Amino acid sequence: MSGYSMDLSKFAKDFTRITQKTIPDKAGDASFKVAAMTINDAIKKVPKAPFDEGHLRASQFINLISGQKLGVELGFNIEYAAKWHELPKEKSNKIAWTTKGSGSKYLSSKLAMYKDKYIKFLASMIHA
Fold it and tell me: Contact at 8 Å (CB) between 128 and 25?
């Protein structure tokens, strides 16, 4: 070997340190933003969270899970939120919802419906 040589061990060490911090930080920020997108979709997309006036929609929350850069909890934090979310579809279809487009599974259905959108967004935030 002739010419020029270079020791990349310091670069490799610094690169590993930086990526081990930066990637989880970006992914954590992206996870929080996807949680906000999911809540927004639960309110605006059918089946919608019921009760556009009142406390259910106002009880939305997003919490970072302590000690996890990627962990978030999201939902609606009012005592009757679970009752309406978990209502069987056959019962949900019989309710005269006061807000058009409301229905059960207003939150969890969005994870299935918009999974690809959420994953692409996460990837774009980490890649940026």
Answer: no
Q: Are 45 and 117 in contact (CB under 8 A)?
A: no
Contact (Cβ atoms closer than 8 angstroms) between residue 47 and residue 109:
yes
The mean of the pLDDT values for the chain is 86
**Would you say the pTM of this structure is higher than 0.85?**
no
DSSP label at 60?
E
Amino acid at 65: I
83, two tokens: 């009752």
Alpha-helical segments (H) within the chain: 9-44, 81-85, 89-92, 108-113, 115-127
The pLDDT assigned to 2 comes to 61
SS3 61: strand
